[in-house]
Amino acid sequence: MPPKKKLKNEKVNTQKTDENSADDSDGEVKRKPNRSKKTTAAADKTQKVLQNKASTEFDDQDFSNDSKTADGKLWNLKIASWNVDGIRAWAKKGGLEYIAHEDPDVFCLQETKCSDAKLPKETTAVPGYHAFWCHGETDGYAGLGMYSKVKPISVKYGIGNPEFDKEGRLITAEFDGFYLVNVYVPNSGRKLVTLPKRMEWDSEFLKFIEDLETKKPVILCGDMNVAHNEIDIANPKSNKRNAGFTQEERDNFSKILKSGFIDSFRTKYPEAKGAYTFWTYMANARKKNVGWRLDYFLLSQNLSSNFCDSAIRNQVFGSDHCPIVLFINS
To answer: What is the residue range of 115's domain?
Structure first.
């Protein structure tokens, strides 16, 4: 693994935090005879949590990367992004272990579904990272988080529209050489009941990132809630009028690319099939790899010479999405 170049802003002071107190050393719950139904249900729930926690075989995965820019420079900055589908459940499933193994310089989370007051203690003080949170007015809905080894120059929340900002959908962190935008784009809903709201978001979001680009290059990451092309979804024909694959949503994503952004994964792997980041919990979809690519790293065109690689960690579990990772030379 190449050495990492430190971002030039303020460094974080590493602090120890309490370990998760759950004891899962043997991964098995012993069953005793003649228990009440309530006790049995509680034990079964505990066993399920332990199994979920152990479902990612971190030691069997290779998190190293030796990618380079087109002119041969090794990456020195790693940014990870993950829709965690509820940070409280994610933490119980061993989500923090991912941070230890991936060791990103910046880690963006979407759909935390949690107010600051209800964040699990172990998620609020991860050693080596500054933490930033953006939650909505409704607990259990939307929300974002960001961990950074280096304190950003500034961190701002929201897109500037109160209707969207009350939901907790956008964090913008400014670093020396770029803005990092962590986003959770609104879903168009069943039977597309909120497609008009989504269209309004798309329009305002494009203006927002275009304005940022007039100041510094932009790295955009998160759950964009759209599979851009047919190669990005397992069943394109049957999803033409479903949320996340309507022509309207896909066209608006294309507008972002036409405005001067690149889709980092497709830039590197234009023909890769079966490269998904989301699978419904139903019908054993993940095991069958019947999925959608909804999570992205988009880069300003003038950062393309800094781009090294874009990875999908589809063997990391703990959510209905998996993490994605960007490697650049900053």
So the answer is: 37-328
Residue 55 pLDDT class (50, 70, 90 cuts): confident
Instruction: Cite the active site residues.
Output: 184, 223
Instruction: Give the dihedral of Cα atoms 297, 302, 304, 306; nearest 10 deg.
Output: -100
CA distance 168 to 184: 8
Confirm whether 4 is domain-assigned.
no
The tally of domains found in the chain comes to 1
Task: Give 170-176 contacts, CB < 8 A, sequence gap 24+.
Answer: 170/134, 170/144, 170/208, 171/108, 171/132, 171/134, 171/144, 171/146, 172/212, 173/106, 173/132, 173/146, 173/148, 174/216, 175/7, 175/9, 175/150, 176/7, 176/8, 176/9
Structural Rg of the chain based on CA atoms: 20
Summary mean pLDDT of the chain: 87
Indicate whether 51 pLDDT > 50: no
- Whether residue 277 is contained in a domain is answered as yes
pLDDT at residue 7 above 60?
A: no
Q: Is residue 14 part of a domain?
A: no
